[in-house]
Amino acid sequence: MSENLYPSHHADDAEACGLSHAIDSSVRLPVIILFGNALHWLVVASLLSLIVSVKLIAPGFLGGMSFLSYGRLAPMARDLMLYGWASQAALAAGIWLMARLCGRPLGTGTGGVLQRTLIISATVLWNLAILLGTLAIFAGYSTGVEWLEYPNWASAMLFLSFLLIGIWALLLFDRRTSGRPEVAQWYLVAGFCSFPWVYGTANLLLTWKPIQASAQGPIQAWFCGGLLGLWLLPVAVAALYALIPRILGTHLHRRDLATLGFWALLFLGGWSGIDRLIGGPIPAWLTSVGVVSGILFIIPIVIIAINLMGTMHRGTPKVEQQGVYEFLKTGLYLLLALGALGLCASMPGINGALNLTGFTEAKSQLCILGVVSFPLFAVLYRSLPALLGRDCWCSTLSGRHYVLTLVGLLMLVSLLLLGGLFTGLALSDPTVTFLNITSYSYPFHLVECVAELLLLIASVILGVNFTVALAGNYLFPKK
Amino acid sequence: MNRLTTLLSGIFLIFLTSWLGLVAYSATQLGRLAPVPDADTGATLPALLGGDAIAGQRIYAAEGCVSCHSQQVRQLSVTPYDVARGWGLRPSVARDYLRESNAFLGSSRIGQDLSNVGVRRAEAKWHYLHLYKPDSVSEGSLMPSYSYLFQVRKIQGQRSDEALDLQGEDAPKEGYEVIPTPAAKNLVAYLLSLRHDYPLPEAPVKKDATK
To answer: What is the pLDDT of residue B3?
Structure first.
């Protein structure tokens, strides 16, 4: 593979000649503010998830108060995880990666100040929307549409602020100086284009001006699939494609395959959401589409794995990049696990038993907390030292964060899977009453609480590490 | 894929496929389904919701009932057990949701499927007790209490007809009674309206089906 096919060396040269420094200082404030807000929502979302999981073993816990009921806290936690943490961190990661990959600072002089002010104002709007939207669910104004619970005005604010932030990623790409785009940039462009499309369409048809309810099911399924598969997943995959070869100082393995993987992911990412409605009140052909796309989704995942695992065989990371590398590697393995899980859950014969059980929940949790979050953590760990211009992370805390997140996630997902399998089998025997099944699910829910607790501790550790890293900048300012 | 416009057109076209197939198809085809006449009574199916049930649907949304309860009896070709379990006489179809403002299909069954709860539990009294103290009518239930949808008040003169028949430690103090608030009444009206047990052209109901 020749040099000009893969411009990672251009970027490395640029790093040497100070262009990277100019790029980093141009995006420093917006990226740090986005990451900082994302982290505090991650902590809040983890805390709410813990409370929600405790309520499943002790339904009376914090009971009797409308605003603390399970039905309000559960969507609050999920939406905070999706929009507060994952989407916001994806915006931060996306802008930093895009600026670096394009070899282009955000802007200089007055224009640059204006651009940064606009992005930061949009970030404030984004977080205000999330805060007010969460409070609205708290107060009983939820729309009741899954993953779109925020009231109209809050979702409109989110939509608008995404446009104001996301447009800069596309403009950076358009004005890049790095020549032929690399794989990570395709994924970033796709991700930044898809959020407004998916979120806008779904809100328009489901909450802003709801269409007849007989048509809402497939649209909702399309939205859930698209939010993960077309927005969050592409940004996470972009982080893998951008960082793994750079950390190893090598080229991407089999770049020719990457094109196929990219288009396959975008194609199936849009269709595969319908797999949650397999057998539901939709025409039979849509059920078939759900089965087929759920199974085929393994194809782009395998291609991504071939690209990146092949690359991983080509080198070993430097000691100081080991931590970031672990997050990326884990993210890739979790992606493979997600593919395998999707494959099993879509298989005719078992999809009926597994759908609507813990299996469905396990897939979303694995995707949001693992496949998407791990690469985003990696970008955070890698970008902050560059942005602050010094080594800022406490490596002990970073290590603990990695272990606790991974253990918590694996516990949570495997318990949900086991619980789902158990419930699915039990529901297939009409003589077993539903309450019987509920009583047997207690141990599963109990261990899920422990897993949620570990995840909460992990996110608090990351939050502390981040805060100390930032504070250190003021305590020991760079010369 | 070097130029932004080329890349964007490719992305646009590929996004368009699922958008046309899942969104535009649903909006134009499923969104235009119409009620059908009932052969026996001449009324239309599915039945219209009353005003209280429509208000109750907002409570159902706000309280996040969909977090735990699905409203879909799945096709027999995918799983025979939704029907076998007694969650419905026949699989649900898109037309069943015509009258709703939102289709609460759900993605999780921590609680039971509710598509036919109005058939299974046709008594408002049962629902009030269940919402107030789930354990009192279904022991071991994971459902939290919705006691905040009820009001404890002093009995003035005669005990209200609406008052809940609570026994033992659930019972209010002597001289007091527990009555449902308008929100609880609307929610129960909505729950009682949930039924997919009528025949539709695309979803006939077998005459001899009893369970």
So the answer is: 75
Q: Are B75 and B82 in contact (CB under 8 A)?
A: no
pLDDT single digits (tens) B23-43: 999 999 999 999 999 888 888
Contact B129, B137 (CB under 8 A): yes
Concatenate the DSSP letters of all residues of A340-357 into one string. HHHHHHHSTTTHHHHTTS
Average pLDDT, chain B: 92
- How far off is chain B from A13, nearest CA to CA, in Å? 21
Judge whether A207 and A145 are in contact, CB under 8 Å. yes
**Which of A71, A270, A289 has the CB atom closest to B67's CB atom?**
A71
- Comparing CA positions, the residue from A43, A78, A276 lying closest to residue B67 is A78
Average pLDDT, chain A: 92
**What is residue A180's predicted lDDT score, i.e. its pLDDT?**
87
Is the pLDDT confidence value at A318 over 80?
yes
Residues A456-468 have a mean pLDDT of 97
CA–CA separation, A457 and A50 (whole Å): 11
Option in B61, B77, B144 nearest A63 (CB):
B144
Average pLDDT over residues A222-239: 97
Cβ pair A140:B63 closer than 8 A: yes
Q: Give the class (CATH, top level) of A3-475.
A: mainly alpha
DSSP three-state, residue A431: coil
CATH code for B46-193? 1.10.760.10
DSSP A81-131: IIIIIIIHHHHHHHHHHHHHHHT--S--HHHHHHHHHHHHHHHHHHHHHHH
Q: Which residue in B79, B116, B132, B187 has the most chain A C-beta atoms within 10 A of its own C-beta, making it the best mutation to test that interface?
A: B79
Q: Which chain A residues touch B91 with a CB distance below 8 Å?
A: 279, 281
Per-residue pLDDT, B2: 64
At B180, list the tokens: 């449902």
d(CA A33, CA A27): 10
Interatomic CA distance for residues B174 and B177, integer angstroms = 8
Tell me what pLDDT residue A77 has: 97
Give the Cα separation of B150 and B59 in Å (integer).
13
Q: Would you state the pLDDT for residue B17?
A: 95
Rounded to a whole number, what is the distance in Å from the CA of A185 to chain B's nearest CA?
10
Separation of alpha carbons A340 and A354, rounded Å: 14
